[in-house]
């Protein structure tokens, strides 16, 4: 793994969380990988693992549609993060 990929993998949680919050729409892990791979150099395994970890931590939501998982920002946390107007 190249140095750039190692650094990207280390910050993957922040990158993915920020991306899902900014886009504010549901994505599959494949969609997230395709959208961020060139810009951040994240590998597919890193994206999948990080999305699952964020969902387990409650930072994002996850839903199953057949065999596919869909991930999206947890909007109930936006007030805490200061995204929503007060």
TrEMBL record:
* Keyword Coiled coil listed: yes
Instruction: Domain (Homologous-pairing protein 2 winged helix): give its ranges.
Output: 12-73
- Top-level lineage group: Eukaryota
Q: Which UniProt keywords apply?
A: Coiled coil, DNA recombination, Meiosis, Nucleus
Key word Metal-binding present: no
UniProt xrefs under Pfam families: WHD_TBPIP
Q: Which GO terms describe its cellular component?
A: nucleus
Q: Where in the cell is it found?
A: Nucleus
Q: Name one GO biological process term.
A: meiotic cell cycle
Residues crossing the lipid bilayer are: none
Q: Which family does it belong to?
A: Belongs to the HOP2 family.
Know the name of this protein? Homologous-pairing protein 2 homolog
Phylogenetic placement of the source organism? Eukaryota, Metazoa, Chordata, Craniata, Vertebrata
């Amino acid at each position: 793994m190249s140095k750039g990929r190692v650094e990207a993998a280390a910050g993957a949680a922040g990158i993915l969380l920020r991306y899902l919050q900014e886009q504010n729409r549901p994505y599959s892990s494949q969609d997230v990988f395709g959208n961020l791979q060139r810009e951040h150099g994240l590998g597919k395994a890193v994206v999948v693992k990080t999305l699952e970890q964020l969902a387990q931590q409650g930072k994002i939501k996850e839903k199953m549609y057949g065999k596919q998982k869909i991930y999206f920002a947890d909007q109930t946390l936006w007030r805490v993060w200061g995204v929503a107007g007060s």
